[in-house]
Design a protein that fits this description.
alpha+beta, seven-stranded antiparallel beta sheet
């Protein structure tokens, strides 16, 4: 490498200003073209967008050398990099990150059908030199990201459980980072999808809404375990208002299943999804979005990656804590009024109150298990431990998945102002509060249990 560190030039690699790529053929005849992206890979490498079969491509394969000039969009400083071609990637984290960013650039210029990424050409940076020319001073950073990250991580240390942790993060993103719209989704191990567990700044909470792996910036970030950032609005990475259903899209079922509307902005101009992961295992995704163009840069990506790592660490710590404690509390006795029919569909473990959809999947199976036991025995107090040991629920091996599903279930019941609600008890305990008489109906089961 040279005296100029590639890391300090990352602002020039945002794609705000197009870069100039120069190559030569084997006879030394030069060719110059504009290129959409120069992507930071690591301290020694960049990736260039491979979009067309053209003379630049032929030259590159012949000589395996190139030179690219980049521009800082704030200071207008120019730098030239000498590159050695290593390989081309057509899949994986680097490719997907570049593909998402290119889609944003293309939509910004009205060229969605022209800008198509064929591959990510990986280069080692052999030399960097400054190009003389006029520059302007760097503007003062509005949000001190290091201080914001420190305050947010410190606030997480005081959280007692997963629900408090996730809500704390979205609140501090607003307070300390100035990010008004954010959400956190957790991975559903039983299907290639994620479900919303916390959100901030939206007209609807969207708790329980789903995103399939590979769908939009959230799904790609989860699938590839890499941050995905877009600075311009793009149709390719937008989400539908209804829940994603992989089976319906594949034609396995022809009828759209009931779902929960996704809470995102209707027309975000900037989005960034950061995986919450413990090593190679993705636990969830943190999404931030804004109505401004180019709201999130690489510095916000670095800062929120630290926040996401702290979330993963706090989740692991909570899961190691003892889930039982001696102190117990008893739920208050609530008078019953009215009757509600709770219907359960084993096909997708969905639960309905009358004809109104509530929840599905593991959270639905948990609720069905609780109400059945309550109807049979009158029991209202339960423990996390007994749910984990219940093989009929087919819970994932990771402890945080049970905690997340109970939070999801509790919030959905609260939003519906339902005749049921879940209240926290002592550590590892919770109460099922029932305010109406219940009838249970399992679809496909001719027997109906009625409580009178």
């Amino acid at each position: 490498m040279t005296e100029i560190c590639l890391g300090v030039l990352r602002r020039s690699l945002e794609g705000v200003v197009a870069s100039v790529l120069a190559t030569c053929d084997s006879d030394g005849v030069p060719n110059v073209s504009m290129i959409s992206q120069v992507h930071y890979v690591d301290r020694d490498r960049v990736a260039l967008s491979y979009q067309f079969f053209n003379k630049t491509r032929r030259n590159l394969l012949q000589t395996r050398q190139a030179s690219v000039q980049i521009v800082d969009p704030e200071t207008f400083a120019h730098h030239r990099m000498v590159l050695d071609y290593e390989r081309t990637q057509t899949a994986g984290p680097v490719f997907e990150s570049m593909k998402a960013k290119l889609a944003g650039i293309a939509s910004h210029h009205g060229m969605e059908n022209v800008f198509r990424l064929l591959g990510a050409d990986i280069f080692r940076v052999r030399a960097i030199e400054a190009v003389s020319g006029p520059t302007v001073p760097l503007s003062v950073e509005i949000w001190p990201l290091l201080a914001a990250t420190r305050r947010t991580c410190a606030a997480m240390d005081g959280c007692a459980d997963l629900e408090e942790l996730l809500d704390c993060v979205t609140i501090h993103l607003n307070q300390d980072f100035g990010i008004c719209h954010s959400m956190i989704l957790m991975v559903d191990d039983h299907a290639d999808r994620l479900y919303t567990l916390a959100s901030h700044g939206y007209a609807i909470s969207g708790i329980g809404s789903e995103v399939a792996f590979g769908e939009g910036v959230i799904g790609v970030a989860a699938r590839e375990n890499v941050p995905i950032r877009i600075g311009h609005m793009t149709r390719e990475y937008r989400y539908s208002a209804a829940v994603s259903d992989t089976a319906r899209r594949a034609g396995i079922v022809g009828e759209e299943r009931p779902g929960i509307p996704f809470p995102g902005l209707p027309a975000p101009r900037s989005q960034m999804a950061v995986p919450i992961s413990a090593g190679a295992q993705v636990l969830g995704v943190l999404l931030v979005e804004a109505e401004e163009v180019m709201r999130f840069g690489f510095e916000e990506e670095d800062a929120l990656s630290l926040v996401a790592g702290q979330i993963a660490s706090r989740i692991a710590l909570m899961c190691r804590q003892d889930l039982e404690e001696a102190a117990e509390s008893s739920p208050a006795v609530v008078p019953l009024s009215g009757v509600i029919n709770v219907r359960f569909h084993p096909f997708d473990q969905s639960v309905f109150f009358g004809n109104d959809y509530l929840i599905k999947g593991v959270a639905g199976a948990i609720l069905w298990r609780l109400v059945r036991e309550h109807v049979a025995t009158g029991r209202t107090e339960f423990t996390l431990r007994e749910l984990r040991l219940d093989a009929t629920l087919r819970l994932p091996a990771h402890a945080e998945n049970l905690d997340a599903r109970l939070i999801l279930l509790r919030k959905r019941l609260e939003e519906r102002s339902a005749c049921l609600r879940i209240e926290k008890g002592g550590r590892g305990r919770f109460h099922l509060v029932v305010t109406s008489r219940i009838t249970l109906e399992e679809i496909g089961d001719p027997e109906r249990i009625t409580v009178v």
